[in-house]
Amino acid sequence: MTSHPLDPLTPSEFNLVRELLATEHGVGPGWRYTSIEAVEPTKDALVRFDRTGERPPRLATAVCLDRSSNRVHRARIDLDLGTLTSFDHVPGVQPNFTLDEWEEANAMLKAHPDVQAALARRGITDLSLVFMDTWTYGASFVPKAYTDRRVGWSDTWVRSRPGANPYAGPVNGLHCIVDLNAMALLEIEDVPAPPVPPVMGEYVPGLVPAELLAGRPERKPLAITQPDGVSFSVDGQQVRWQQWSFRVGFNGREGMTLHDVSYFDPYAPGGARDRSIAHKLSFAEMVVPYRDPGPDHLRRTAFDIGEWGLGFLTQSLELGCDCLGEIRYLDATTHDSLGVPRVITNAICLHEEDNAVLWKHVDHDGGAEVRRMRRFVASFHVTVANYEYLVYWRFYEDGSIECEVRATGIMVVTHFAEDGSFPYGVLVDERTYAPNHQHFIVARLDLDVDGTDNTVQMTETRSVPIGPDNPYGIAVAQHSQPLRTEAEGRQDYSWDSQRAWKVVNPHVRNGLGTPVAYKLVPGGAIPTFFDPSSPVFARAQVIGHTLWVTPESPDERWPAGEFVTQSGPGEGLPAWTAADRPIEDTDVVLWYTFGIHHIPRPEDWPVMPADIVSFWLKPVGFFDRNPALDVLPSGDDCAPGHDHGSHPA
Question: Which of 26, 285, 342, 427 shows its CA 20 to 30 Å from the CA of 453?
């Protein structure tokens, strides 16, 4: 038995799901498992477990695709009883693509004589250097002849030599349409391409010209050690650090998730206690539209969570490269398309780190107090074809939570002719441009601020007109507006008013007599630049607003719809919020859209320095005063009065 109802599925539980479905419905050869995950217990069931030890039923759900009929089924399994409780056909949908399909399509296409002939006409005969990268479709781009099939379209890339960067060698104009169920080539799109220019698209040291690696002084070692051990504990999936406590989850679609986030407040009104902040923090969708209408990029819009799954794409981390310091790792388990469990060792990195000054003041009489800041980090890294996403949830001693995403990896590029133009991209190498594109990430924030009955307030700063009470025009006032319905909960960022959003519990007051709250401090909020009639925008309407607020519902998890592959318009949040349900003084979920507006630079090539975006959750009246007041000096070197002056060279 697992130690906690929120724990991810174990390898034996994956195997049980597979065995039950094989026995009762013949799910095996000719089928694909696109998703197997645990069913999260309700909040009420978790409260009963915490109070009485009563375990909720351990359940799992699986999505299976019958390749021969192109029919999708959703199964529900009682893992405690070892029984299948439902097996239902879900008509008219396509589930997420799998890594097995991606690999199989590459192998099938490279072995196909028509593809080999098309490559040979371009002078490409060494197939070991060729890589065929299959993407998914949106419904509006699927060729009419194939709307009843599970189809993908492919890019073609070629390495200059073994081990070289394939994304430096685009085979422009050559794309294949693939039936993923039959694993068969349907069409080849082969349009004339410009001559291939000489490019320097390598980043592995042995392949980069020596003159580009000789100009930087050597970096001295930087060792981070904690000789007395770490200040945090890990018990199964439970993490405790300073006053913070949370559980780490994981599944194939969302990747790492955080649950039961709380802060132990020794000074809380009514006595010391753990105070709830969030039931669950996770990413629910990631939309990456390329903004170049040319033939190589017109269809290129990725829904990296709904179409592929962050968990399936999570990489193993290595000490000293991806994480630095005294590290504790958690493994994670996903599965392949046969349902066989796949363990990702060191999938999640847990560690604490120094972060400069937490607070400081030097008094006029010379007295000084300074405290170093520490933060705790839970992170995981994902590779989505050419891009890498590095996700960090950071917990601070002042009660703040930061969510940071770093995007790195390799840009998609396209060659052009000597007299060609590239109006929708940026020159990054000789006759080579990278198209403009965007990365929209949707965070699902199920906040429970000192309880579940919360109200979201939009906050703005407004200038006060000059008048008798403000003769010099210096006054600004802060205004808060409660959001009462889902229509009001559709919010957009405003730089002019520094708009943000507070999640308030009107039933709990701090020592000052005001309601406790946490504020969503926006960062990385970007406009879509989409025409509202765009079919790409129609299936990604979630990115049309910076924030959506909905009443919590266990069935509402995917803001662009559960089945995003080959999807049409209006799925997910637009459909749910059409009812305009009340959201005041209830259990609410915030859907926050942030990301990167990527207008490429030559400096992003051939491998991109990390582009960093983040947002914050900060206490606003949740505490009576600075909760980090009780942080002690960090040893003699930070004690008051210690000489921190410069030392002679």
Answer: 285
